[in-house]
Fold these 2 entries.
Entry 1:
Amino acid sequence: MSDAATGVGLDAMVARVGSIAGRIRVAALRADRDPAAVTIVGVSKTFPREALDAAYAAGIRVFAESRVQEAKEKLAMPLPDDASVHLIGQLQTNKVKPAIALFDVIESVDRANLVDALAREAAKQEQVVDVLLQVNVAREAQKSGCDPDDAPILLDEIVASGTLRCLGLMTIAPLVKDPQDARATFKDLRLLQEELRQRHPDAPLDILSMGMSNDFEVAVEEGATHVRIGRAIFGSRG
Ligand SMILES: *Cc1c(COP(=O)(O)O)cnc(C)c1O
């Protein structure tokens, strides 16, 4: 497989994944957490299918894509059975059907009409669909994710649907130079998780999807169960 096809060659990718796993381990131990409780999600958006195969060979088992159509093309040939793919980009309500077919977890659920559309399609297909509630913790303008104050009501709707299962929360921290400046956002997502757990003790809510290439160690220290890593695995997106 050529480097041109993958962005990063297989040997380099093995080294990169190993290095990220090592940094997760150190960050987890620093926070008295079990490193095995943190999953690396390989964010393969914009990279070709060959890059997913190389990342799989390097040990990545959970992938994330931003767009339904792009994922559909890349997954025309299914990944091995032990791999799963999450949707992390904004989802239009008219694309819920292909999204449910393609993705194992939809991380970007952030508004009532999307909850509705997903719940209806899941019911139609007699399927339970796993989702995360995406929260705009820092209340940044133009950023997707629900307002933290709306999270309880959205979770109520997900739970009431009976066809959607909320596995936890997702956030994108503000873009900051010093990753320490993202810490408050990660901490707030964890506090929100605790609050929502009290409201819905029977909902699974175990996942905290937070942290990216530039800030994942801080996220792990603050309780991330899933870190979404793109550039640090696949290389720059140009
Ligand atoms: C692109 C993207 C990532 C990965 O970002 P990197 O900086 O490449 O690690 C993570 N989460 C979301 C929602 C993204 O869109």
Note: The longest strand covers residues 164-170.
Entry 2:
Amino acid sequence: MADIKFYSGESFPLEMHKVCIVQKLNLLPIEQRRIAIDEAGNNTFLLKNRDVYLDMLTDSGVNAMSDRQQAAMLVADDSYAGSETFFRLERVIQDIFGTRFFLPAHQGRACENIIAQVFVKPGTVVATNYHFTTTKAHVTLNGGSIEEIYKADALEITSDKPFKGDIDLEKLRALIQRQGAEQIAFVRIEAGTNLIGGQPVSLANMRDVHQLCQKHGIPLVLDASLLADNLYFNKLREPECRDMSLREITRTMAGLCDLIYFSARKLGCARGGGMCMNSEEIYKRIRDKIVLYEGFLTYGGMSVREIEAIAVGLEETMDMDMISQGPQFIRFMVEQLVEKGIPVITPPGGLGCHLDAGAFLPHLSQAQYPAGALAAALYLVSGVRGMERGTLSEQRNADGSERYSDMELLRLALPRRVFTMSQVKYAIDRIVWLYEHRALVGGLRFVEEPELLRFFFGRLAPTSDWQDRLVAQFRTDLGDSL
Ligand SMILES: *Cc1c(COP(=O)(O)O)cnc(C)c1O
């Protein structure tokens, strides 16, 4: 995005694109939203999109495509085997990452399923800067466990540390000592880190981790799903990257890793996924599983139209104008909320704006799912749909007890290039109103609790009549506004 100085002294990001296609949105009156959230079991995953005004649930598969992506979808080559479309994507991947081999999969977790099956044996450990929900589920399903080796400051809500996603090398050394290198299935770097606020990883840290892994013969795996945002921050915050092109940074990173996988629902702004590597041995071990779980090697469960869109989308990821809108809008939102005294994760990261539900609702214990309650409350007062990233998103311990999350967050994703500044301002306005009436917000309890990934379809109920009181207060303050 262009670095524009405004004569007025104001400061806000300026888009380097224009809107070509629009989609109509609905904003229901609060009474109807009250019914909708009740029917959804107070789980924002279960809301119907037609009842949502701003869908800030996720950045997955909902990023705006470019005109060039849309155009490419019309010339896709549909065939089971040997599709020209596939080879186009393969060439782009080889060019961007500099790797020899590419294997397609239908989305990020499909890669994780296969990687876990290939590398994780019962009793082994996957060391990572921070887990992602689906990653952890696949690792544990294969009998492994996750060890998080983030730095001490990674979980500080308020911070000015530029790379909170970095791995703590001392923790990694200690883990290797304790477990023995052969018990570590792989080290996984998630760049950027989804669950701790889209915080980036530095290139320097990746280099150090690579050296340590190399020395002990431990494979290094990069989850590049959120790489676009991470690259933006490398370029902006890391001195050695300032004079490198995005292409150079990407290639340097890739050169440090044995295996790279990504969700193309995020990276490349389409829908799909894939893995790339230089080692023929790793390629062959993974290849056999692709045909079993995903499809033939030249589509891997993806539509060829999406493959075309990914190829163009990945190319466009190498353009600073194309990847800046998300992080810059997020920074605007975070800075506005900080100014109003609202607890959010700082510094601003990628993916979205993360409200600290623990500090927003200090009167709720973690057993009352404060982040889930805040998600339901914000939808109620605004029609904005966020995602709980707290205790609800954890799995219970083996003995059935709650596993309380490190952070209770409400994530408000800003899908790339989707929302306008006035929509972001509307969301800020309603968050400020809710913060001023936070004492009214009560907790949630489970009515129906699935065993695996319970946050997706679990149903909850408010622990009191707090939602009715919130609606009444809204009417008192805002009259007959929607
Ligand atoms: C979204 C995401 C995944 C999973 O990708 P899907 O395409 O949703 O299956 C894995 N890792 C990270 C860091 C993600 O953000």
Note: The pocket of pyridoxal-5'-phosphate is lined by residues 60, 107-109, 132, 134, 190, 194, 223, 225-226, 263, 265-266, 273 (CB under 6 Å).
